[in-house]
Amino acid sequence: MNIVLLEPEDVQSDTWLIHSKRQLQHLREHLDIAVGDQLKVGIRNGARYVTEIVSITEQKVDVRPVCEEIVPTKLPVHLILALPRPKVLRRLMMDSVTLGVEKISLIHSYRVDKSYWQTPFLQQIDNYVTLGLEQAGDTIVPEIQMYKRFKPFVEDVLPNLISKEMPAYVAHPYAEQSMPTNISHACSIVVGPEGGFIPYEVDLLTKYGCQAVSLGNRILRTETSISYILGRLFS
């Protein structure tokens, strides 16, 4: 945790309140905090500050702002991701938020088990987002949407996301075109499930405006491919 992320209601006075059990445990066990120490604190969807600890109790830590800091810049990317296995979802959400993805859409596909949409992990996404923001020192929550039907998403939603200024790339290991590198424009990235999109899905995605692109001749796991794609596009 490289920043303590607070809710807006916790910063309504001159001193700000840290009372999350998880955050307090981390501050005590890993930072060994003391009154007078400085602490990086952010306000969800707001600014980020250097603060000073003014009091510590078992139930809370009070801090006061000292100076404002710059919030890390987001990557101008919309990650469209076939819903992964529940345990992988946790890692992917945290990593994507840490890397600075601006918008995330979770979609269905043929190789996504329908039971994945019933997992309690989906109800915990806000927790994973918070952990990703705290890791990166970020405060701005990415927009997150879910689409439980593949074809309606591709036919009705996807075309509105694609333009000359914002192309969409679907990662497909058998595409002839290579994924671009070091781009300077916003884009959408579509990543399939373990096993990849079936041919019908790739054809539908390309029909409605996606460019099928390859990352090379190695078949990567989903969590590996996302980090690789973002590094390749925005390094």
Give me a quick take on this structure.
β7, α3 and β8 form a beta-alpha-beta unit. 30% of the residues lie in helices and 26% in strands.
Please write the string of helix (H) and strand (E) elements. Answer: EEHEEEEHEHEHEEHEH
Roughly how much helix do the residues carry, as a percent range?
Answer: 25-40%
State the separation between the terminal residues, measured CA to CA: 24 Å
* Largest sheet: number of strands, sense, barrel closure: 6 strands, parallel
Overall SS class: alpha/beta
Give the low-pLDDT segments.
Answer: none
* Strand content range: 25-35%
Q: Order of strands in the sheet with the most strands?
A: 8-7-6-10-9-11
Please explain how this structure is put together:
This protein is of the alpha/beta class and 235 residues long. Helix content is 30%, strand content 26%. It is built from 6 helices and 11 strands. The chain has helices at 21-31, 86-99, 125-136, 150-161, 199-207, 222-234, and strands at residues 4-6, 16-18, 38-43, 48-56, 61-69, 75-82, 101-107, 143-147, 168-171, 187-191, 211-213. The strands form 2 sheets. Strands 8-7-6-10-9-11 form a 6-stranded parallel sheet, with helices on both faces. A 5-stranded mixed sheet has the order 1-3-4-5-2. Helix 3 links the parallel strand 7 and strand 8 (143-147). Helix 2 (86-99) packs parallel to helix 3 (125-136) and helix 2 packs parallel to helix 6. The mean pLDDT is 95.
